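Extended Data, record F-box domain-containing protein
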Amino acid sequence: MPEKRKASSQKKSVPRKKVKQDGNAATAPSHIETTQQQSAQDAANAAPAAMGTPTTVPEGEGATIPTSVTKQATQDTNTAALTVAESASTVQQESEDTAQVANSSEIVILDTSGALEKKTCFIANLDTDTLIQIFYEAILRVPPNSTPGQFGTPWHFNGFKHPVIYCATRATLRSVCRQWADLISDAINLWRDIHIDGQRIPSPAKWWRKGWRPDPQNYSDLDPNEAQFLLPVVDIVGEMPRASLSVKRSQESTINLVLVDPTYDPMPRLTDFGRPFLPRPGILEFLHGAMDQPMIGSLSISTEDIHFVKDLFDPGVYLDGRCVVERKMETWTVAELISLACDGEEADHFDLSTLPPSTGDTFNGIRTRTQRRTEETKEIEHARLRKKFKVWPKLHTLRIRTRDPGWMLDQQRCALPAERAPALRHLELELFHEHPLWLWTFPYPQLTHLTLATEESSDFLLGIIAHCTSLESLIITLRTWTRDDTESTLTLDFGHVILSLLRSLSIQIDAPRTSDHKFGRRFLDSITTPRLQSLEVISSNVNRAYPILHLLKRSQCQLRDLRLDFSSSVLDARRSRVPKEERFNLQELLYFVSPTVENFAIQSGLMNCSWFEGFSAPNLQNITMLCFGIEEDFLGYKYIDDNAQKVALHVLRWAEKWMKGASEEEKRKRRIEFVACPALVRGTDGTDVFYGNAMSGKCDQVPCPDTINVLVSRIRAMGGKIELLWVTARELTEEELKAYYEQKKEEPRSTRRDTMRW
C-alpha cells in the first residue's frame, strides 16, 4: 500500500480550479434552519453548478438548498462515497494538503464481512459538476425530518446543537484521491461554516487566588500535586486546527461562526461568587485573527459566561466604569431603560475618523523627552480606543444565547451601536432574567429580523419594538419573571406601535408562574401590522390567544399562513371557566382570515369542531392538524375513550366536500395532514411524549379505525392528497431509556424549566 500511494502521488494531479469569492461569487448553504421563519432568514445559497464557471447567486443567508443529484450520479459514486465515509467515521480533524491520498480509480471499502478490500469505481467518468454536487450532498448537513406542521422542530436557531458541516465526512472524502481533495479544498462554501465546541478543547485547570478582585488575571497555574482539582481529560485536539484550516480554505470570504462554550470554569469545585471564567486555549487568538480580516459575517454564541461576549464586543468588561450600581438600576424608569438600550450613552459613540494615525514612524527628527512621553501617552490612548471601538463591517447576523447564570452578576453594559456594526440586520437574543436586556445597546432601527426570548415586561419590549422601524420578521417571547404583566407602567405615550414592514410574526406567550388568561394581552393590543402575512401563536393557555383576532382586524392585513400551537390544551369553550366574552374563538378567527389564508396548521387537545360548519377558504391549500385527544389507561396504555376519532371524522367529512367541489388543478394543490396522538401519558403532556422529550413513554404508529380508513379512501379516490397518522404510547425499552439519557447529557445544562423549546 505505501508503494501504491507513493506512485499515485507522483502522477500528474488534476488541475485545480479556484473559485474566488467576490461580490458575484457563488455561495452555498450556511446555516440550515428547521423552522419556517429561519428558513427564509438563514437558509444558505445554492451550491455552484460548476467549479470552473460558478453560477451567480445573491450572497447572504436567503437562498435555497442545493438540489439532489441525478440518479445516474447516485448509482455511480454515491454508494462508494458514503462507504468511504463510514470506513473512517472516527476522523475528528483535518490535515493540510500534505495528507496522503489514494489512486483516483481505486477506493477502499468494507465488504459484508467487515474486511477491507479495493474495488474499482469509475469516478473518472464523472464530470466535475456532478462530483461537486455529490460532495455538497454528503458534507452539508440537511435539516432533520420535519414533523407534521413543523411543530416539533426547534423554535429558534438549531445550529448550536447540529453543525452545518460534517467535518469527518469532509476529511474522509478529501483523503480518497488527489482530485477529490483538490475539488473539496477549492469549494469555498464547504469551509465557510465553522462550528467550535469548547467542550472538545483541552483546557487546563487553574488556581484562584481568593480575596482578589474578579479579574481573569487572578488565576495562576495549578500545582501538579493538586490533582483533585483537575478537569476531565479531553483527548480531542483538532477543534482549533480544523477551524483555522476552514478560515484558510474560505479564501478571505465571510464566514459563519458558531461558538459553543468558548469559556470554561478552571476550578469547577470551588464556590466563590464573582469568580470569572477563562477563554478556551486558542479561542481569542482565532477570533482576533478572523476579526482583523474582517471575515465574520454571522456569529452565534451559546455560553454560560455573558462577560466573555460583552468583552468581545466592548472590551473592558471588568473595569469599574462599566458596572451599573444596583441601587441606580432600581431608580430608573422604563422609559430610561428603553433609551439606554436603544440609544446608549454618549461614551458609547465615537468617531474613529477623529483618531490620528500612529505617529511612531511618521517623524524622523529628534524628539525631546517631553515630546516622546506625550506621543507615547497619546499612542496608548489611541490604541485603547481603536480596540474598544473596533468595527465589525461584515457582521450581518448575531445570535447570543445564555444559559446558567454561573458565579457572575450581570451588571456590566455592552454597546454595539450602528457605527460599529453597520451591516447588522439579524439579531437573536435569548437571555435569562439574570441578564437584563437593557444592559445591551444595539442598532435596532436598522434590524430587519429580530428574536427576543427574554423575561422583560411588555412595556419594555414595546419600547424596543417601537425603535425597530425596518423590521420584517419578529419572533418574541412574553415571559415576565417578577411582576404581573397585565398593567401598564410605561411613561412614554407612543400609542400603538405600527410595524409597517413586518411580514412574519411568531409570538410565544409563556408565563408558568401565573394562570392569568390575560397575560400577554397588553403587548398584542399595542401593535399594528398592516403587511403581516405569516402569524404563529404558541401558548399552553388557549385563551391567551384571544387578542390575535383583534390584532388582525385592527391591522387589516392579508394573512396567508396561520399556525396555532396550543400544546395538548383542550380547545373547547364549554370546558373553559373564562368569561364567554374573553374566550378564544377559533371559528371567528378562521372566518376572518378565510378570504386570504393559504396554509393553516393547528396543534391542540380536543377541539370543538363547530368551526367546520360552513367554513370556506377559496385560497386554502394546506391543512395540518395534530389532535392530542386519545385518552388512554394510566397503567396499561389501552384505549378507553378515543375522542380524537370524533375530531377526525369531522375533519374528513369536511375535506370530502372540500375536494368534491374542486377542479383538477385545485386538487393538485390541496393537501391534508391529520395526526391523532395521546393526550396524557402517565401525567406527562402528550406533546412531550410525541416529540421524544419525555421518559414516560414513546409513541408508535397503529392502524387507523375502520371508519376513518373508509373516508380516507374516498377522498383519495377523488384525487385528494391526504396523510393520516394514528399513534399510541408505550413504555420505553432499556435501550431507548439509555439513548434518552445520552441525549440529555448533550443538551445545555439549565437550573430551571427550559421554556425556549430547544
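Summary. The longest helix spans residues 369-388.
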